User: Fold these one by one.
Assistant:
Number 1:
Amino acid sequence: MAETDFWTGSERYLCDRELAQSFHIARTLGMPLLIEGEPGTGKTELPIQYAKDKGLELFVYPTGSKSNVEQFVARFDHVKYLRDSQIEILNSQREEKGLKSRLSTGGRNPEKLADYVAKGPAAKAYSTPNSVLLIDEIDKAPREFPNDLLYALSHRKFIMPESNEIIEVSEANMPAIVITSNREQELPTAFKGRCIYHYIHFPEADTMREIIAKHYPKVEDRIVDVALDVFYHLRRIGLERSPTTRELLNWLKYVKNYSTSEAVDKIQKLEGLGTLIKTQTDLERVQQKILNNPMDFNRRSTPN
Amino acid sequence: MFEKLPQKFKEYEIPVDVRALLLLRKAMDRNLVKTIGDIYNVLKGIVVKNPDMMGPFTKAYYDYFLNIKIQHGDRLSDAILRSETFKKWKEDNLDRMGDDLSTDDLVNLFLDEVHMTHYDIKEVLDGKTLWDNDRGDLEDQESEDDLLETARRKLDKMADYSDLSLEELLERLQEVMDRQRSNHSGGSHWIGTGGISPYGHGGAAKDGLRVGGTGGGKMARKVLNDRKYFPVDLDAIINDNNVDAALASLKGIIEESAREDLDIPVTIKKGLKRGGLFIPEIKSEKEDKLQVLLMIDNGGYSMDPYIRVVQTLFRKMKTRFAHDLETYYFHNTIYDRVFSDAQRIKSKSVEQILKKDPNYRVFIVGDAAMAAYELNKPSIESYRAMKSHFKKIAWLNPEPQKYWAHTFTTMVIKELIPMYPLSPKGIEEAVRGMNRKLN
């Protein structure tokens, strides 16, 4: 039976309530879950943590600008096939000449085309019942890629190249498919129609506090307070690339080794800003807006 | 069931097709829908396809399922307070709520009940089991017992409802819907006693048995009060014929590039047939290539009517054939920055824009009409720099061409950047102009 329990997150991973519900709906309906949202909202973490927590097998397909459905499903290894068939010829020639030793084809048999099919994550996931399949950052893929996926997603079936082997999965054993996108390009409507859609909102301060607690349970509240204050302030001033959860966690990792007062001091002086701000223009902007106005900023970040 | 839903949602520009309805039905089959909060949840996952649709979707849902109409610029709480549904609900539930609740509390309670899902109910039920198990350790028996008793009574009721079969559920839904649609009884029965929503009886909120989490109500409220869910393009009244004509003329800007690649599979196959003589086979890959920068003046009322059409146009273009479309916004004129969101909060410097591939085609959409002092030197410099970097650049002006000569700033900009009227014909000319400069 498919894994359709309602899953709300684990020790290490705080799953947004609405996201958990969408994920459950998607799994129950046997449909992929398409998660969109800003970077750093934990889109990719969901399937990873879910698989880990439930002890399910996880298959990942990181999408890139060269992605195609062959890599994703399966491709036929022509080169290996060629090599092995040449070896067969060679071997028979050697035999004729009375040579005993044979060259090996590594257990593959050129007669059996299935030996040369290199299965991609999708084919693997479909042949493993109740696995988890993550298609990461699909918006990076060429435009045809999502359209090519449509067939598979709606038929629950792949046909392997050349060997014509059919990999089919019943609806009950359907892997939990999670697709993430940063919305760098709009996905085709037909594709979205095959998915349950969820948009992750950037966590608010309360949620962020819980997320921090999951990662660094020992960090003093006072440090978290000040860091969050600075963090959300930085997010508000309209940077090109606003800092995200990941960056905040890295920053805290850096300051948490100091004593509370030292850490607070470091945060307020924006030490280790490089972990939060990633482009030169942003850095200049922060310096101009905040560091040149320390009075204003200190007043903001000191709770009274 | 739900025959009128697609029609109602269409009024809010939310497409709902047969497949979506079938999916909803399937979700009911699989016990995903027990309350109308669940319907909101499931339908959202099926129907909403980008964050901009959240606002209109929520509006459509309130209209169709609750008979609460949220007008443009309305706050959710106002719309609720005004509605018959809410009044009826209040009447029905007055005794359990007491009269010490403020209007805000009432609205919150109402929202929480509307958006309560079966997950919430399950959580309460799980909580009850936990609570039962813990009971032995409780010191303060008396008051806890009372509380437990009340809680259990209510929870039992919830449990009853959550065991409804699909047929019963559908029947009940239909019944409620019929009542909802008749003129006099109001829409109250969705929620509260007669509705499918079991917690209406419970009033869990008052006994400290709050269902956990954020509560869907909070989200709905956030969605409907937050302008970022209503970007300029969605309430658009577009002239479809016109847009398609314009789209057709935009098609002229696609470039095709061909690339030659070694075709390994064919090479091998043919080679094997030739008995091991391999001759490279070449295949040519065709690629459509199109990079577009769209800059829209979305400041001020003068531009309002046009923004929507323009966005629809380019969005259509993007889904049909563009690979790379970036939209920026500005107010009246471009100085040293443009903004990547319609609210003009996130900015990008013109300097950075100028680092982009000069093959980008740039469309600037604006009426170019402003006070003369606004079009200052830096602004003019920006236009000059853009013109010299991006050879394929055009200004599309929604003002009728005959008025251009009467506006000083329009005439100045026209000298800097080729200007065309924002009409299918104008766009066609703009595209033709761009292509000409290529050679």
Number 2:
Amino acid sequence: MPKMNMVEAVHQALLEEMERDENVVCLGEDVGRAGGVFHATKGFQDRFGENRSFDTPLSELGIVAFGMGMALYGLRPVAEIQFADFIHLAYDQIYNNVAHMSYRSVGTYHCPMVIRSPHGGGVRGGLEHSQSPEAIFLNCPGIKMVIPSNPYDTKGLLKSAIRDEDPVIFFEHKGLYRAVTGEVPLDDYTIPLGEARLVKEGKDLTLVVWGAMVQLAERAVPQLEERGVDAEIIDLRTILPFDKPTLLASAEKTGRVVIVHEAPKTGGVGGELSAVLAEEAIDLLEAPVMRVCGYDTPFPYSLEGTYMPSVERLLEAVDASMAY
Amino acid sequence: MSESIGPMPTQPRMHRLIAEDGTLEGGIPEGLGEADLLEIHRLLHLSRAFDDQAFKLVRQGRISFYAGSRGHEGAQVGSGYALEAHDWVFPSPHRELGVHFAKGATPFEKMSHYFGRATDPTQGRQMPNHFGSRKLNIVPPSTAVGTRIPHAAGVGFAARSKGDPTVGVAYFGDGATSMGEFHIGLNFAAVFRSQTVFFCINNLWAISVPLDRQMGVPTIAERAAAYGFPGVLVDGNDPLATYEVMKTALDRARSGGGPTLIEAKVVRLCAHTSFDDESRYRDAAEAEEGERKDSLVRFRAFLEKQGLWDAAKEAELAATVRRQIDEATAEAEAAPLPAPETLHRHVFYEGPEGD
């Protein structure tokens, strides 16, 4: 079985889907001739032609809106936003147009499109090459949202996203692109959207993580064991709709939950997960839900190591939860 | 401006086939027979009668909101009549009443939409004037003006890449040309030679803001030069001229010639919407002047000069249209609202429903 890094898994998923369905089309800035700034679409233009993988004028709004027109007409566009920090430029198109089309038209028109975008910090990217903007889409009915954490999941989830009839935002952590390698089968497998992955079973406390925070949680395991804490790690994988049954079942089992994400704490996805736990599982909890997040500041350049959630901050939260 | 920078782009000539008194100045566009001319006349009357009725219904508190098309019908019906059934229309969220009728919408479907009934093709999901229909290839719009302009470019690209003759058509007003989406949509369509027509109905006002606050050039049509495709200026109160320029643009798009921007100049013969009091910002003389240019008056005079029409036929048509609108109003008002349990349906795709 071949080993791939994350961006190779993205490439493999796109390649297989473009071969399977001629309606799958990749578009974005530097997607065509250059094959993507991270090489996700490398070689596609030579292989599939200029109508299947192409460069657009430099406009995030245009990429999403033009892609939406393509999707309405029956193509399956995979639109690349070069950095997730720039997805804000297309926000009205995603929120009021792409996400609402099925609802406003009672399903007579719909937008089966994927908006792929590298996100995440720790890459010396400063304020606008580091963000994790998943929370701004959490309050947007009609959108699905995926953040994979490893190459195997990346391929299976991206293939599901492309085949899905609904618009899917697919954030890929650029810090993981070449940092994480794993076995990726070449056969045609998919992973259903909406299902979390149990990374590690445990009985004392649940760590809820996604994207690069999965690796962070795994790195913390030896120190958690030293403390005598048997942590369960759940990789959410799909942020919207998130896997509520898995979240609640784990909370019931351990009674303690720590949520870790890179985005700022206030209004982050962790807040919604906490609210669900408070509404539906408060009697089962032994301690308040803890959140380890980015700070409520823009993403800093020189101080990004201070900003990003760390093993130390994770352990502090775990200690507080266990001591409660 | 310094002359050393060079001349301003040449302003396009205004296309017109029928003079204000109904005299035919050019030829009747190829492909239009007597039956077509009479059908265009009927669609103008249907739109105007519907418009009058809708304003009455708002005043009576029976529908919540209406944005009128009065004064825009010549541009709407003329351009809409040139569309093929398979062409995709992205209407503005305000007007395009005559386009909807030219595309085949029935008064009952339109009234059901204004009453928000289950019999609306989109089952009361959208506020009034945001009409859409899958079977007619009219895509229901979102509200912010101009935001669908790049969608029409995307449809036009997809149709071209599939080898289909379909054209994506974006309708919008003069205010929408200040939106980023106008520039982006036209630019994308130019780069990809999309099968797209951009149809701007310029009524000189974006609610209360006049055209010279939207742009620094005299016409919208000349802005096409910046994108590298033709910009055409047409008298929007002349349904035949509007038909002709639209037909030419559609043919050009279908044959791989690329997009066209059309500016149809009209006079708004109503306030922006039922919530707008235009006396606060607009000189009444403009609308009075506009009444003299009205497409319904002009087209009737044209038909009479052609020997195709007379007062008796006009009265009969008006009575027929009046009856259709009254029946549609009664039927739509009596139709059920969407069932409460449908609230949660179709947030995510469930397969088609509706028309």
